[in-house]
Design brief:
Elements lengths: L4 E8 L4 E5 L21 E9 L10 E7 L2
Antiparallel strand pairs: 1-2, 1-3, 3-4
Length: about 70
């Protein structure tokens, strides 16, 4: 079981704003919840990335797609 951490970045082109979440838990849990109410009703782009458990290595962010925050 991997113990690396993951982060999420959400960007609204309409608002020109980012939300970053670094306290999402470990990758093996395969779930996170982020308060993105600020972007309610807007389409956003979502990215994820991973950081090693010791914080010494990080992945390149991966684009996961666009969605509308409701």
């Amino acid at each position: 079981m991997s113990s690396d951490q993951f982060y999420v970045a959400i960007y609204s082109e309409k608002l020109k704003q980012w939300i970053f979440s670094f306290k999402n838990g470990e990758r093996y849990k395969k779930f996170c919840r982020i308060d993105a109410a600020y972007f309610s009703g807007t389409r956003v782009n979502v990215y994820i990335g991973f950081v090693s458990a010791d914080g010494k290595q990080a992945s390149t962010p991966l684009y996961t797609g666009a969605l509308t925050i409701s």
